[in-house]
Prior knowledge:
Pathway: Cofactor biosynthesis; NAD(+) biosynthesis; deamido-NAD(+) from nicotinate D-ribonucleotide: step 1/1. The chain is α/β, with parallel strands linked by helices. The protein has one domain (9-194): Rossmann fold (3-Layer(aba) Sandwich), CATH 3.40.50.620. Helices cover 33% and strands 16% of the residues. It contains 8 helices and 6 strands. The protein has a 6-stranded parallel sheet with strand order 3-2-1-4-5-6. Helix 7 (148-152) links the parallel strand 5 (132-135) and strand 6. The protein is globular and about 40 Å long. The termini are far apart.
Amino acid sequence: MPYAEKGMQIGLFGGSFNPAHAGHALVAEIALRRLALDQLWWIVTPGNPLKSTRELAPLAERIRLSEKIAQNPRIKVTAFEASHHIRYTADTLALVRAKNPGIDFVWIMGADSLRDFHRWQRWRQIVMTFPIAVIDRPGSTLSFLSSVVAKTFDYARVDEGDAPILARMRAPAWTFIHGPRSLLSSTEIRQAAKK
């Protein structure tokens, strides 16, 4: 886990990053700026329980490409889940909380992930652990409102203008952040590489 000091605001941006691309870097940069983060931990996961592992590149390769894409020195690329044998986000967040008292975290996800978020293992626990920032993605700007999570936790939605203090809020709290969007997709990049 990267080093952090008490009082910091840190974003947690997890994914398989298979492969990492400029769209991921854009989400990270928007999160750093709009959430007033001291750091963003780019967490490269060993795998995704909801996706096939057949097309998953080796972890070391995904880390290498993530480090190449994430140029901002406040972005810390890490893969600590692998060394702790963690498969589920709820367990990752519990570990982060236990090992980092006095630090304010916010979970960061693309709006495209919000659609299926209710299928994640212990998704309600995730929402109750740290505030969540949902970053706009192409094709997901309006559909996020119909997601199970958005409907279930509608009462906990925070105005986008309060994004800089989101990490200091008590969960459940979440916001949707509009901004520039990238059309890049890891799935489409893999499919193009096959051709």
